Amino acid sequence: MSAFGEERTSHHIHTPIPQEQNGVVTIAVRCRLLLPTYPMNEHDLLSYYAEPSPFTGIGRFIEEVEAVGADAGDISKFVQGLLIHNALSSIYDVTFPEERTVEMQLHGVDALFERAKKLNPSRLAEVRTPSQRVVVVCRHFATIFVAVMRSKGIPARVRCGFANYFEPGKHLDHWVAEYWDQEIGRWVLVDAQVDDIQRRHFDIRLDTLDLPRDRFLVAGDAWKACRQGEVEANTFGVSGTENWGLIEVFGNVFQDLAALRKIELLPWGWYGLAGANEEAAYSETELIDRLASISSAADGGAIDLLRSLVSTDDRLCVSEQSLAEIHESDLASYAEG
Q1: Which helix (H) or strand (E) covers residue 218, if one does?
Q2: Band (280; pLDDT cuts 50, 70, 90)
């Protein structure tokens, strides 16, 4: 039984999940095939997000992952024991050589697990010391959380947006997870990155296992808040960089839509219109307003609309070439020490 009280089905996937090669799921599949091809009701939507994506398959690690509890807190602690955020290593009293930063380029969860095993061959549920954790960014915490949830039949998805609980007055580019809580009947936002050390460092007092929607804004909500003048656009950006303003919100709308299509890209993996023409943030506002509404709603009707738009506008699609290159990059990581 799935977490939403129905038998798990795969009728919504019209092409099979790509076959695995050396433990990594083949990525060379057109992004539009990752969307179901019929109107979605609530059950269809939840079934869709309960199934793995090319980046959230867990390959040969299924038995180890099954040992992790299905509680959001248990899964968050599991993720935190495997990963360390590249920009926050100093608060864990550890530094990494430059060559370790390539770990941030890994996309697939199974590739991340393989890297974790190279650093420490213990079972994945064994908490690693900070120096033995995979060096990543926020997207990876969210993606592994989602992968574990999906492996247990619980609908889950990665969300891209902005958090305003790290620095007062700022909305920082951030990625979290969202899962369907059948008991309370709603989607719940979870920041699987924030552990006790980060909670103390940033003085975070909210519940990171049930984030308020005004403390983490999915990209569509952030775009609408900026467009309606509710929040200054220059408060949205990437910590430690000069990348601030409406352009960053524009790019994150595309990243969030990709994640809703179960293509969990890296934060810098802008694509389509966002990757080719940043000025579209100002010249294509009617289109971006529409895309932002999809990100905000993220229900069956919104995903239906997203499917329709992607099928008719290549500017909204992650290219097959890009997906193939990602796959090759993850495969190459297996040959590295």
Answers
A1: strand 216-218
A2: confident
